[in-house]
Amino acid sequence: MVNEQKQRIVFIGAGNLTTHLATALQQAGYDIAQVYSRTEDSAQRLAGKLKCGMTNRMEELCNDADIYIFSVSDSALEELIDKAPRREEALYLHTAGSIPMSVFLGKCQRYGVLYPLQTFSKNREVRFDEIPVFIEGSSPEITATLQKIGKEISGQVLEATSEQRRHLHLAAVFACNFTNHLYAIAAELLEKQRLPFDALRPLIRETAAKIESLAPIDAQTGPAIRYDRNVMQKHIDLLDDNDEKEIYRLLSRHIHAFADTPPTQSATHE
Predict the structure, then answer these.
(1) What is the DSSP letter of 103?
(2) Which are the contacts of 255, defined by CB distance < 8 A and separation ≥ 6?
(3) pTM
(4) Is there a contact between 182 and 248 (Cβ–Cβ < 8 Å)?
(5) b or e along 193-217 (b: 16 or more beta carbons within 10 Å of the residue's beta carbon)?
(6) For 54-89, what is each residue's pLDDT tens digit?
(7) Using an 8 Å Cβ cutoff, are 68 and 93 in contact?
């Protein structure tokens, strides 16, 4: 659906999320007027892609935009909100999972949250229409506006309070960031043995595919679920890094406990 009013949007932030969200909104018919980044090169690269204005100075932000979208680090968000232009009729949004909507309270008249739940990399394309978008508005009117914006770029728009979104973000860290770090550990282990990470890709794909039809707890396999102490200790002995040994122990104990069969004994120490 094309937005007939061509609302003007200014993005504060030029990172991975902004790159994909701005592109999706532009394709939906919104006018991306300007992007800001404290790093001039980042602002220039994204502005070049979107064919819009750019700045690395907050005082040079367009003061006539309809929507200002903040997609920056949590630590920088409040400071940048304070420096943004003030328009009573403008809509101010942030895209953070762990920051409450109240960060705008007393600073803006119309505000809310537009939180796409996905991992983004600048050079990897995603289908935005498949990404769930979580919204929260400062009033019923703003919520309705966010529903409309969300539906123009995504097939799944859900309302979530700030508290719900904090827990959603936590769950996403477990499901995505921690899982990816375990991939990195696995890749390093294989590299030391001159084995390709590609050997794990079918296993990773099947593990991810199983939760399309099974609850994650029902899809669990491996030595930890049955608490095979001999196998687990052999694995621990192969690890050189003490943190990785502890990760292995903690995850193994938790996997087994999660299955409602408490371990009779933890994996032995070194």
Answers:
(1) G
(2) 220, 222, 224, 225
(3) 0.87
(4) no
(5) eeeeeeeeeeeeeeeeeeeeeeeee
(6) 999 999 999 999 999 999 999 999 999 999 999 999
(7) yes
